[in-house]
Description:
The protein is built from eight helices and 16 strands. It is of the alpha+beta class.
Amino acid sequence: xxxxxxxxxxxxxxxxxxxxxxxxxxxxxxxxxxxxxxxxxxxxxxxxxxxxxxxxxxxxxxxxxxxxxxxxxxxxxxxxxxxxxxxxxxxxxxxxxxxxxxxxxxxxxxxxxxxxxxxxxxxxxxxxxxxxxxxxxxxxxxxxxxxxxxxxxxxxxxxxxxxxxxxxxxxxxxxxxxxxxxxxxxxxxxxxxxxxxxxxxxxxxxxxxxxxxxxxxxxxxxxxxxxxxxxxxxxxxxxxxxxxxxxxxxxxxxxxxxxxxxxxxxxxxxxxxxxxxxxxxxxxxxxxxxxxxxxxxxxxxx
Length: 302
């Protein structure tokens, strides 16, 4: 396989919203920007990409229509990679696996922060039945958000189908890799260095905040086959939660960043599953964010 290099002039459309996603790109030179409702009255700029960054990968990994239009802001040179050649691209560029994962990790962190802010504002609106104090919030979100009105709110909750298929592919590998933990064993705790991610092959894992404290809260439950703990590995940050084995036969595989290249060679299905978990997580938090923004907007209109 040889990657295809393309050069675009200012104003050229590289990706069009709504099109099927069968390629993704790495920007080599210049600058490109992503827009929702491009060239319409309610056009909103979502992101600007600099050389070295990837774009268009979500549609490829999860086989979704393009969610935005990407336009060259000046002369721009890109590498285009076809979906069916993604594995070969990674084979030839194994160092890119972590870079692509970090793209998702960074976007998830940013969107999570925005979503938490929007949900807090929505809770306050519901509690106080007053919107005056959120005029600044509305102004800020109007510039950043893309679905603030019912007219534009077309984002759908992502399907788990591709995630399920990816998990089943890993399950069919019938690997015996990993360590088995008994009920109640702490796999990692809040404050630990996030040096690895985990794939749960059997059993059950609970993810908690303030584990063991009076205000302990169970945030989610992980069931086979799925990955967890990947965000801190990608951000090289400490753990923000505690993971606890909740069955006597909880078996997890431990994967470090430096293992990813070898893992791809021995079991590419696991890399595919990790990428689809990240993509699904990003789509889910994006949906929740824009849904909250829409509710705030509708409450403000009322």
